[in-house]
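Tutorial, part two.
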Amino acid sequence: MRALQWLGVDNPALVDVGEGQRIHADTAGPFIAMQQAAAEDGVDCQLVSGFRSFERQLAIWNRKWHGERPLYDARGNRLDPERLSDTEKLHAILTFSALPGGSRHHWGSDIDVYDKASVEAWAGSFSLVNDEYCNDGPCAELASWLTEYAGRFGFARPYLDYRGGVARELWHLSHTATARQFESAVNCDTLRAYIEDVEIAGKSVILDDFERLFERYVLNKGR
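Running the prediction step on this input gives:
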């Protein structure tokens, strides 16, 4: 596999699944089957995000670094970026947003899902946080359904448990068979070299301890 594929620069295996969303061709069939099965059980399962390019991830990163998008701690509590050091800001971003080139969304195998119908009928402001997928949250029924049935369609939650790296994300699903080929291709040195050549906010602090960040967040091995 060429590095540009897992880096999210060029992924020729993507297909359109509607609403402006693209995912890997090998993931599309299982996702649609899962979506239809959920609908038959009265549960809406729609994509918040499928494939995300390197450039899109870079834009998200830079906006978070510059305080244009909110930052949260691992428990979902909002943080004040003005009170964070650059190192603290780096870890706050990585807790919920991958480093460009290090996102599983680059592969097309991983998706974020939500209960669109329930969210639209909900009085709150949807922020894609775990509270919305638990207890009385608008996506709680969907989260429960996925726990029971997602595995039947080949999907797993790579961020089900917080290990000190990426926060728990009940909305994030990975098509295991498709993701496996990308997981084996991801390489620390290649990603570092790519980051060195792009305009990314906080570059010096990113590169300062890159190997440890790669292990903790990109591979999600935690502390």
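The first strand starts at residue 14 and ends at 16. In part three we will examine how such features are distributed along the chain.
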